[in-house]
């Protein structure tokens, strides 16, 4: 009978206790461990105090088989993970030559002065398996001690995830003796609510076995995580492809992307494919729409630019919205939204113009309720359109939901 491994995740950092940053590392690691059938029994957060970190490590060692520690591997005095584990284990440390060389090279290339405390990041336990940190300085470590597996990872999420995917998952695969391979993929949907999507897939979800189907609402729409188990990569691909096809047969009209691809990446790809450009006039969203698009490589070929037209004066002076229209209809109106989209398209010489105007709160404006949103869409050669919504939430939620509606409208307008 195979051993049932118990895992624990210890996050080191006073900033986590103070709520200055969220402990997203533990959430993400738990999700990955679940795929390997490794049960996580404890999440612990401890501040940057040597005695408390040491005591926490002792407690974790007593109750868990696999202890994953994030944070506390940096160069400063409050980075105490190594010191605490040494105080508990009495294992010797040494300077890891390859890691030290990497740190020195980085400082030489950047021209920064390397202070002596940076050498601390290259210190590792003599018995450790040292893991190269391709995203940062401090290496990760795997240490076998007293029939326990200790895994030390940086606290910076991108560094932690890179090491976990490249080094820790393969290690755990061998450690736990899994006979089957496990693979997950994410399907992203936009324009359909979580309850509606679950209703459409109800029978598939109820009879799910392999792959499993897990819907989840996110800030950028709905995702479905498909997780399959099989004896080979080919079998995994077949299982995932079949289930994906069954899902898209039901709700394919709302499908946006798979895996790590974002909504804005899909939009930029489609705009480039069609060789059409876009511009935005943003009152309510304050530039958030264009910001999302320009994060994508290749956006410069299709994103002409945007105008943040927050005040009535900017709407009138830069985008030539008639004063009479604003006095009669208001800036939060269908008429204003249409004209903003059309004029920004013309002024920035673009094929598509989109506009956002509305009331984010906290109070009413121009007699319009909080959450009133109008999005204008002007596409060369087509009739101008306006879409009106009554969105719920606080100020930032309304702005983000309006942005998401705009992305959805553009996706639908430029379907391949």
UniProtKB/TrEMBL annotation:
CDD domains: cinA. It holds the Pfam family CinA_KH. Residues 8-174 form the MoaB/Mog domain. InterPro entries: CinA, CinA-like_C, CinA_C, CinA_KH, Competence-induced_CinA, MoaB/Mog-like_dom_sf, MoaB/Mog_dom. SUPFAM superfamilies: CinA-like, Molybdenum cofactor biosynthesis proteins. Belongs to the CinA family. NCBIfam families: cinA_nterm (TIGR00200), molyb_syn (TIGR00177), PncC_domain (TIGR00199), PRK00549.1 (NF001813). This is Putative competence-damage inducible protein. It comes from Oceanobacillus luteolus. The lineage of its organism: Bacteria, Bacillati, Bacillota, Bacilli, Bacillales. The gene is cinA.
């Amino acid at each position: 009978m195979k051993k049932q491994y118990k895992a624990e995740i210890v996050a080191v950092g006073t900033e986590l206790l103070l709520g200055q940053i969220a402990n997203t590392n533990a959430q993400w690691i738990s999700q990955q461990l679940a795929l390997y059938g490794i049960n996580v029994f404890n999440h612990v957060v401890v501040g940057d105090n040597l005695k408390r970190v040491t005591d926490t490590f002792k407690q974790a060692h007593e109750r868990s088989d696999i202890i994953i520690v994030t944070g506390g591997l940096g160069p400063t005095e409050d980075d105490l993970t190594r010191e605490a584990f040494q105080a508990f284990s009495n294992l010797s440390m040494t300077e890891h030559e390859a890691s030290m060389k990497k740190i020195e090279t980085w400082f030489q290339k950047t021209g920064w002065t390397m202070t002596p405390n940076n050498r601390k990041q290259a210190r590792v336990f003599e018995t450790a398996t040292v893991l190269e940190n391709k995203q940062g300085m401090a290496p990760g470590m795997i240490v076998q001690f007293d029939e326990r597996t200790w895994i030390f990872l940086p606290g910076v999420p991108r560094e932690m995830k890179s090491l976990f995917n490249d080094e820790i998952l393969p290690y755990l695969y061998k450690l736990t003796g899994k006979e089957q391979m496990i693979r997950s993929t994410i399907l992203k949907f936009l324009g359909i609510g979580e309850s509606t999507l679950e209703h459409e897939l109800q029978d598939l979800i109820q009879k799910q076995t392999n792959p499993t189907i897990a819907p989840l609402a996110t800030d950028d729409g709905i995702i479905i995580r498909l997780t399959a188990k099989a004896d080979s990569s080919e079998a995994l691909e077949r299982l995932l492809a079949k289930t994906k096809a069954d899902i898209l047969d039901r709700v394919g009209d709302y499908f946006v992307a798979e895996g790590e691809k974002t909504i804005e990446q899909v939009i930029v790809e489609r705009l480039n494919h069609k060789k059409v450009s876009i511009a935005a006039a943003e009152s309510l969203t304050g530039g958030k729409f264009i910001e999302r698009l320009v994060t994508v490589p290749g956006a410069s070929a299709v994103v002409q630019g945007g105008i943040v037209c927050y005040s009535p004066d900017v709407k009138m002076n830069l985008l030539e919205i008639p004063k009479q229209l604003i006095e009669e209809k208001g800036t939060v109106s269908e008429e204003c939204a249409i004209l903003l989209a059309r004029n920004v398209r013309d002024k920035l010489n673009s094929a598509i113009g989109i506009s956002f105007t509305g009331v984010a709160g906290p109070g009413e404006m121009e007699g319009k309720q909080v959450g009133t949103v109008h999005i204008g869409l002007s596409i060369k050669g087509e009739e101008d359109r306006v879409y009106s919504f009554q969105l719920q939430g606080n100020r930032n939620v309304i702005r983000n939901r309006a942005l998401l509606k705009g992305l959805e409208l553009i996706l639908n307008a430029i379907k391949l």
